[in-house]
Amino acid sequence: MKFTLALSVSAVLLVSSMTSAFAANAPSAAALKKKLSNTLGLEVVELQPSPIAGMQQAITARGVFYISDDGSKLIHGNIYDMDSGMKNLTDAALAGPRKEMIKQFEDKMLVYKAKNQKHVITVFTDITCGYCRKLHSEMKELNDAGITVRYLAFPRQGVPSANADNMRSVWCAADPLKAMTDAQNGKSVPVAKCDADIAGQYHLGSTLGVNGTPAIVLEDGTLIPGYQPVKSLLNMLEAK
User: Fold this and answer.
1) Whose CA is closest to 168, among 124, 199, 205?
2) 63 CB-near residues (< 8 Å, 6+ apart)
3) How many helices (H) and strands (E) does the chain have?
4) Could you read off the pLDDT of 3-58 as tens digits, one per residue?
5) Most confident option among 37-41, 59-63, 180-184
6) Which residue of 21, 37, 139, 149 has the smallest Cβ count within 10 Å?
7) What CA–CA distance (Å, rounded) separates 50 from 86?
8) Residues identified as active-site
């Protein structure tokens, strides 16, 4: 019995010693960020422990990556919690940063404000996107439901492109809200230039995990990819 107890204590001490040694030799957060930058050209916005032990979660300008604590392994993909209804933990990790990063572009948004505002959504849109046009055609219904819609530009052809130039003309028009409605209805918008930072809006979308339009960001930072009918969207917002 004494031998078993002594063996158990020794094992605990050995594991503790090995863990401490590993922690002492593990690269620092700064070193992991530098490795991601030097190896893949990734700009790391935030580095934090991941849902998987032994991995760090790197929120970057190109989405979420997972890097091992020793900096030798890298995973790019979604992590799901099988015990919580297959909750997407990767997307959940971006919710907080999304809210903070979107705040930096509030002065660039085109806002269709609800008279009796109950909810606010931020929509990454493209004036050539069919489902973006469908969503925009329901603007009155959205506003009547108390949903304020804030637009950010996400030209699917990238930046620079003719698509991005046309979206800049919308943002820089004398009446941007009317210009947006015209563009979403397939009408041409006169060329206009200003500091709309369409490139910045596009890169923000890419960082936040947007890869198609429309992409709807709810008040808590949750990203909803694709078009949603007004009733479904309202149900999602009221369930938060």
Assistant:
1) 199
2) 76, 206, 207, 209
3) 9, 11
4) 343 434 333 333 344 344 444 567 899 999 999 999 999 889 889 999 999 999 99
5) 180-184
6) 21
7) 16
8) 126, 129, 132, 156
